[in-house]
Design brief:
This protein is mostly helical and 185 residues long. The protein has one domain. The protein contains eight helices and no strands. The two termini are 23 Å apart.
Length: 185
Amino acid sequence: MGIALTGVLVSPALAHPSVAQVNSLVSGIAHPLSGADHVLAMIAVGLWAALAGGRAIWIWPMTFVATMLAGFAVARLGLPMRLVEPAILSSIVILGLFVALAVKAPLGLGAAITGLFAIFHGYAHGAETTSATLIPYAAGFALATAALHAMGIGLGLFAERSVGKVALRATGGLTVLSGLALMVG
């Protein structure tokens, strides 16, 4: 797990490509994997969902993906949204804190929280695409996001069963520190 986090920490943050780079399903898949901000936030959603257990394992990540697509649509409609990058960075820190502190949230509240952050992540994706590449790109980043959520869920369940919740919570702490580092760097 430490090696994976090291790879995330040394990758470029806020990897939002220019419009010229956003042109396909492959670009959509690659985008969430290209920057620490995306990887950390998506895995944190999965970790928090795994920690919560039950229906949260499916509902919170599915809510994130669906709401992220809504944020994408908002951007494509040309509606302005302020503080997109600060909200994305804040999502890393807050979701990491939820994991580190083992925050228990009712199913609906957890879905609302993940959905709120997802709007900003989706908006960032939508602001980067052209109308000619709308569907393939959106499908790609939705698939990659779901895969990152699944990775977080898998890591969370593995950590709980093999080394205990302390390791899972420590991963949340590392996520918080990584998010803070991205904010200042």
